[in-house]
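Possible regression after last week's pipeline update?

I re-ran a chain I had predicted before the update to compare outputs. Posting the input and the new output here so someone can diff against the archived version. Not blocking, just want to make sure nothing changed silently.
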Amino acid sequence: MKITALRSDKIYEEIIQAEPDEKLELYLEHMMSPFMNKWNIQQIPFRSHEPHGFDVIMMNNFMNIAPADITPEINESLAAISSEAFWQKCHEAISTSLSTFTDNGIELSVSEYLYTILLGDKNSPSLMMNEGISGDGGIPGYIIANLIPNRYTLPRMQSVLAHECNHNVRYQYIQWNPQITLGEMVVSEGLAESFATSLYGEELLGPWVAKTDMETLNTVIKPRMKDQLHVTGFDQINPYLYGDELAKLQNFTPVGMPYAAGYACGYHLIQYYLNKTGTPITEATITPASVILAETKDFWNEDTLFHR
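New output (post-update):
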């Protein structure tokens, strides 16, 4: 198994020194193009042929520092992700996560993994909702984490990478398709966060779970979500998965859901499944959502109790 870090800190340093009209091309060439296969699979254009059209840079700028803003003003944040110790911790998180599966007899069809850490934009509403940390690991072989370095996000870096590694493993076994359901997404996010806490502890739960109290889960999220697990299409799925506030930012119709409702619900659903069946989290990760949902029908009608 080969795990390669794209050392974003070195790339940021180079772009800081560049002339303003060179920054975009350098960012595309060095930071974005190594992930070209990922963009192609996701059908995200590398360059839009229309002014202000959707492409990898527009997507980057939703959460991360835009190429034009990579100036000496980011030096303090950059210093936080520039140490060898930081990258060693990131490498260990990915290596430990993937090895947890292979050590438990789960074969991985992907043998090479590329990851990087991007500096988040403190003015990004979607990143602010996530308390300054996020990740992207749905395409096997590629992992990107985003953070605004601080005392809250830095300790959660390994846990976030473990979460994304779990997605990487699941989608080597579960075939992604455009008709993916809300149920699959809820299960997937619950598995990823349950895997992360199995390695790094519940005290490092991501904000997408920790910010939801049990009363909200039991009285708002579960009653409204339980009959929607069949829906498809991101315009239908995202409001349930991410909540109304982000739905509005994405121009989707709100459905009365709080922040990261699907993530919080998924986490507690998977905890229920693991406790009920005794299935190891590694095996659960490659289990179809239909199997997990069939085993957890009672979850939707029982009050979830959770004490940390």
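Follow-up from reviewer: compared with the archived run. The longest strand covers residues 112-119. Marking as no regression found.
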